[in-house]
């Protein structure tokens, strides 16, 4: 906690946040100038009132009273205009900075290595790009800038008071330490509840998000009541944290009022005594000082609050900068291929590749195999043997630890990442669909792909009729994550996507779960169409695919234990033959 405290007002983060305001210099300076002007103008009103009462009302100079009243109205209008300009420019600046930081953060998140998503919960990244950045906005709108304005106003008002009557000022300020002590405890208390509320909100968010996503499990196992109790507990923590904050406000605000009243009473008492002692009228000073006290206390009421907002903003900025400074991004090799062919031919070479997701835990161990252009290779092996890892490495989703992967005899690190991935189409088992139309999900909103091309590709794998049966056809709105479509249908959509990209290499992760015979047939056809004329690596679960493959790579605990085609491997009567007996023979019997 002490570490967190030390960082509370870490000036480097603040400076960096303000660095984002650099492109908006004019707005920034307008805001600063307005802040100074507003502070300087604050004591003018009490001064004019004092002047009016002491000099003109007492002596009955009506003209001057009217004259000063007009000046007061003018001043008020000027102050209002300046306040508007100040509030607007500061809020504008905050929003502009937030927009820029959010764009930078999201860009960064998009380029982070996949490893980061394995270790950082999605909720955390969402909070960084949405909530934390919003808190940075508060530094401008409700934090540092208003604090500076308030402090400047306080200094100006105090300066004026001391200038008029330093003794009277000191008397009026006698109860002031109560405010300082009160502010100290108030700030501590609301700071604590702020943090608690924040944590409770985060807990509520992730709880609800996780349970809505996993609603099927919750309902299928009839654990609604247990889960509801957990929710209720978190919700109560949220309420309690909020109530503690409200309690602190309920004590602090009346305390300020009491201190203000005390200061005013002391002021009146002292001035009354002075008037009697000196036999001199002090009405002007009294009115001006009462006004000054109000001008002093008004910002004090909220300054502790603003300090907290500032602190939260700085903590949030530190978190956001941590994402922005994350060095784990895929960078292009210095020794880049410059003369890129329009299309790769698609030969693949894995040379002694080893890989670990977590240090010390080898998932692939010295894997070597070669695939000729146009060949279809099936990778088989028990669950967890490293099949998916192989395809993730080929696509450079993760960087390998040892060995080399080459496509067309060139290390894949030497191809620009975009180019490499454009040449490899991936069709996964569980196809992720975005909210949007079927068309959007096929083209991934690539404006270069026309509707006609999509329809042609769909017809190519006999999907057109199915899509046309959907309400709205290609404009059918896919609900979140595509839950309105079946697994097979989703995979078929991604087949269309793959056809459109016309890649040299196709990676296919066959669905393990059984799908209806109609979709099964469509998928079989689609696979046959897709693999034609391109290199294909299939994580195979169907015997038919394995049989058709030119080569089968058998994986066991991260090592290639056998390679060959179906017949050769069966003849060897080794690992594959046993795998065939346990996993695939049943499929053969079903077919027969
Ligand atoms: N992102 C990850 N972070 C850490 N470990 C991982 C990650 N992904 C996979 N692993 C581990 O790596 C090993 C190989 O996983 P991989 O997904 O490649 O196996 P697989 O053969 O494709 O399995 P399945 O047939 O069940 O999909 C497993 O032990 C798994 O626990």
TrEMBL record:
PROSITE patterns registered for this protein in UniProt: ABC_TM1F, ABC_TRANSPORTER_1, ABC_TRANSPORTER_2
Gene Ontology MF term list: ATP binding
Signal peptide (residue range): none
Keywords recorded for this protein, A-Z: ATP-binding, Membrane, Nucleotide-binding, Transmembrane, Transmembrane helix
Top-rank taxon, per record: Bacteria
Protein localization: Cell membrane
Protein name per UniProt: ABC transporter ATP-binding protein
Organism of derivation: Terrimonas rubra
